[in-house]
Amino acid sequence: MLMTAIKNIKPLGFPWETQDPFLFCAYHLDNYPEGNTKMGPSSEHLRGRNIGQDFQGKDGWSMYHGSDIPGFPYHPHRGFETITINKQGVVDHSDSLGAAGRFMEGDVQWMTAGRGVQHSEMFPLVNEDKGNPLEIFQIWLNLPKASKMVEAHFKMLWREDIPVINHVDENGKKSTIDIIAGNIGDVEALDPTPNSWASNPENAVGVFTLKMEAGAEWTLPATLAGANRTIFFYRGKNIQIEGRSIQVKSIIEAKADSDVTIKNGDEESFFLILEGKPIGEPVVQHGPFVMNTVEEIQQTMREYGRTQFGGWPWNEREVAHPRDKGRFALHADGREELK
């Protein structure tokens, strides 16, 4: 019987379907126009949109829940983590702990919602004289029952610090791998948030982005037996794995304890790779809350209705930082990082 590293291949939908310990991944690619004085689209660009619920991708972009600035005004979370990978554009963060930040191309924000937090994620159009393209992944990573009620926390993984592998194959073709979580060989990622499932190396959580030149070949090495491994082929044309041709916009579920050699076709290709030991607990999700039982979800909804997870300390629902503000992170304890 032929042994293969490929377990399953299926079409890439929206949001992207993931495997335990991940919950899902939302990929946003928006070719936003130039910004007005309020860092939003001009009124002519807003015509014909369902403002507040605009996910239609008209003209190549969406306002999402934003009214003046694209993005997601303040909303709650409990029971899981978000990993937001910025490939291009500007993301402004603000939360109910009083923390805030702005991160741009190459940066990653890792937020543990834990027992509950409200946050705002806005995409200000800082360029007034040219377009404002945005490309981000937001990955939801579950928390085990023992960690669902930890204190909320966020940290920045700045692009200058994120480990990168530049692999050149025997034909001189290059593959670039950003190590967001976990390790590939001796190259280890920065530390995640302290209560994350990824904080224990035994859970073998890996989050990688991969860019391959046309004709390049690269091997994703084996990891923990029993882990789940998913390769999202989201841009390019075609690849080959074990002689099997795979078209773009495919999800490849692969064996984690086998090497997986990817041979790229004749166009540059892009991938997201997620892997890790499954948590293996019941998952009950209701909107922005992820717990283990229906009763816990009901309790969460009652608590949020009563406390608003500490309320919203900002004057606006759609918090955007000044246009000329650079990359920064202001933490709840008053510590500030400037980049």
Automatic annotation (TrEMBL):
It comes from the Bacteria. Transmembrane segments: none annotated. Residues 65-141 form the Pirin N-terminal domain. CDD domains: cupin_pirin_C. Residues 209-310 form the Pirin C-terminal domain. Belongs to the pirin family. This is Pirin family protein. It comes from Algoriphagus sediminis. The lineage of its organism: Bacteria, Pseudomonadati, Bacteroidota, Cytophagia, Cytophagales.
